[in-house]
Amino acid sequence: MPTKTRKKTQRIERRTDALSRERIIAAAIEILDAGGEGALTVRALAAHLATGSGAIYWHVADKNELLAAAADDVIARVVSEVAGGAEPREAIRAVAIGVFDAIDVHPWVGAQLFREPWRPATLEIVESVGGRLQALGVPKAALFDSASALVHYILGVAGQNAANARIHTAGMDRSAFLASVAAQWEALDPAKYPFVRQMAAQLRGHDDREQFLAGIDLILAGIGTVR
């Protein structure tokens, strides 16, 4: 092959690899992590990849598809990292904490999972949790409610934790935020809110991740009573 033709072929191969769907999704995740959903536009993505918008549209239809594909990619990695031979209960805990950590790192994922629950990202979570519940011997009649309780808890708490993180980033760190809320709880009327005031001390120093897993264990314990 003539030298000029070979060099041209190499340039085409490099360009194809740089603008693959996978590279585009990876770049979209970088933009989303740095600036949130508002920062992700096809123009911003094209600039990030040093290409034209037409090259982006060749692989994805619009921003909505980009968001969905990015969330699918993040969650697929979480599910794939759970050990295949793990005991069902531990596998459910691993999926749960994996999703929690992923949404903590990528806060935009939580909103996307609720926005389009028919996408692979949500379906992967439901399938992974539901399959393990079957392996635990949960009766067929109780599977829907059991899986729903777990998935809603996982997505709800993980999403709320990500939302809280955005509050802290906006100007108040987590410790100061919790101390402020705890102080307000302690100042409540003891006759009307005795339990809330009692929880104030624990609120100050609690670990969100540990509390999340404690909730998963409580739900699994409840599911165990219907086996």
Quick take:
This protein has 227 residues and is mainly alpha-helical. It has helices at 3-18, 21-35, 42-48, 53-57, 63-80, 88-105, 108-115, 120-135, 140-169, 174-186, 194-205, 208-224.
Topology:
Elements: H1 3-18, H2 21-35, H3 42-48, H4 53-57, H5 63-80, H6 88-105, H7 108-115, H8 120-135, H9 140-169, H10 174-186, H11 194-205, H12 208-224
Helix pairs in contact: 2-5, 5-6, 5-7, 5-8, 6-8, 6-9, 6-12, 7-9, 8-9, 9-12, 10-11
Written overview of the protein:
The chain is mainly alpha-helical and 227 residues long. The protein folds into 2 domains: 58 residues, Arc Repressor Mutant, subunit A (Orthogonal Bundle); 141 residues, Tetracycline Repressor, domain 2, CATH 1.10.357.10. Helices cover 77% and strands 0% of the residues. It contains 12 helices and no strands. The radius of gyration is 22 Å and the shape is flat.
Helix content: over 70%
- What characterizes the major β-sheet? none
Average predicted local confidence, pLDDT: 87
Q: Kindly report how far apart the N and C termini lie.
A: 69 Å
Per the principal axes of the C-alpha atoms, what is the gross shape?
A: flat
Number of strands: 0
- Computed CA radius of gyration, to the nearest angstrom: 22 Å
Number of helices: 12
CATH class of the largest domain: Mainly Alpha
Structural domain count: 2
Main attributes?
mainly alpha; Arc Repressor Mutant, subunit A; Tetracycline Repressor, domain 2; 12 helices; flat
